[in-house]
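Summary for the steering committee. One of the milestones for this cycle was to obtain a three-dimensional model of the protein with fe (ii) ion bound, which we needed before selecting residues for the alanine scan. The sequence and ligand used are listed below.
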Amino acid sequence: MLDSDRPEGFEWLASEPDFNPAIHLALEMPDVIESLTDFGYNAEQIASCPSDFAVTSVFRVLSDEGAACLLDVCHQLEAFTTSNARIERNVRGGAYRSRFLRDLCLSQDVTAFMSDISGVALAPHSIPHQLGHLNYNPKQVGKNVDKWHVDTLIYDYVMFVTDPKSVQGGAFQYYRGTKEEVAALKEAGHPLPADKIVSPDMPGPGYAVMQQGNMVVHQAKGLDAPGERITMVNGYVTQDARLRDYSRYDQLCLVDPAHIVTAEYARHEAHRADQLIHQTGFQADKTAYIAALREAAARLEAAANIIDQSDKAVIEHFGDE
Ligand SMILES: [Fe+2]
């Protein structure tokens, strides 16, 4: 994400604060961390994930000043909202337009903090459009901000930029069960049982929950009265490239410009392949390097095929209710 290495058409905001972790962060560890076991996932499913971590209780990320700066940045970025089949108004690629947003999303302090929470060494997502995703409430009162879904990335935090106490409705919600359970309920035409829907009480701007986004089904409710609701979602990848990655080229192509998705996805896969080799280490014998090189080659070949063959996707979600 060098200043000189950005897609065409993205300009830096003309005026914004410099991100300063000493001033803008107010990281506080969450009191409660729920596990995938608590959600009903079985041992086999959990073994395929980097950790048993599911979701946190609400915790603080930004200071009052940090939240005010991010709100100012988000107001400036609102001119760049786009729509997709799930979300009426979102800004993606904001890290190419705002240095403040970019530096917050790449912050080493925040990344270390999120690694501590999840129990897995993390890095900011290597697909830049998965950094600092911004949701803005639809203009129509009552319309959901985002439908029930799981993320096409592994770990993320969802943070309120606006004050959730200043509006009616607009809750972030997650389902305290498995995604297979949600799929079966939707298939049968049943609503999700209310007693398993959790609406974390967000006390103010700059507060968040972190989740294993591909395993926790979640949605964002619409406002019940006119108002402003903006949230930021920042994505992470595991530092260990041997662990599973959930990136979906086909899904990303439905929400972001295809030529940018292609470049970002190709770079992401190349980066992970490079990591596989580096993680083999200086002490490994040649057998380990032969295996790592073959795995890297297979992954790169698979990525090329995915890019080559992806053309008929639809956005996956579980609907509104
Ligand atoms: Fe999500």
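Key point for the committee: Residues 21-241 form a domain with the Jelly Rolls fold (CATH 2.60.120.620).
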